[in-house]
Amino acid sequence: MSFVKSKGFKYLKNFIIGVGAALVMLGALYKIQSWPMPSIGDMKVDLLSVGLITEAILFLFLGIIGPDKDYYWEKLYPGLDNYNGNVAALTPGGDAALSAPDPQAAQETMNGMLTELQGMSKSLGSLKALQEVDFSQTGDQIKTMGNFYTKMNEAMASLNNTVDDTKLYQEQLSSLNRNISSLNGVYGNVLTAFKGN
Questions:
Q1: Residue 89 — pLDDT band, cuts 50, 70, 90?
Q2: Mean pLDDT of all residues in 71-81
Q3: Which residues have a Cβ under 8 Å from the Cβ of 10 and sit 6 or more positions away?
Q4: For the residues 48-69, what does the mean pLDDT come to?
Q5: Which residue among 30, 35, 64, 162 has the highest number of C-beta atoms inside a 10 angstrom radius?
Q6: Is the pLDDT of residue 157 over 50?
């Protein structure tokens, strides 16, 4: 962004224009009232001339730098900054607040707003009722709930440990079953061997 478009430059420009205009008005006031012009040392200052020269220089400068562009409507409506651009008109199917005047759409919008306001009114009534509730015993109840949740967490941790122990027991039983099956197979082979002799 160039210095000419910066906020600082715009402020400085407005300040200088304001000072120049003030000098012109003071000079005109001094001339109209036929008051003696103020002086700096031995030199008389003609406020009207100083103000007019300042304004002339500023207006020349403003003519050179061009006008400021404050609104960027072309971002909302692409093609708006092009004279021959094709900008679609707003239609009733779009944003109801920006659409062409349509009494039925306006009525629907108003009804929607009224419904929202009624909902807000109910919510505010609920908040007022909540404000009137006595919360003096709440601290004790919160402590009790905290103790309950602590005990509940301890019980859940204990239950998790029990589940782990149960899984280990099941694994050991499965291992024992496999060993017994192997021993049964060996025992059956030994019996078969003895019967064959």
A1: low
A2: 73
A3: 68
A4: 80
A5: 30
A6: yes
Where is pLDDT greater, at 154 or 90?
A: 154
How far is Cα 158 from Cα 151, in angstroms, rounded to an integer?
10
In percent, the amount of the chain with pLDDT more than 90 equals: 0
- Structure tokens, 69: 């562009």
Question: Backbone phi, then psi, for 95, in 5-degree steps?
Answer: -65, 120
> What residue ranges do the domains of the chain occupy?
3-68, 161-197
Encoded amino acid at 51, one letter = G
The residues that bridge with 39 in the sheet, in sequence order, are 44
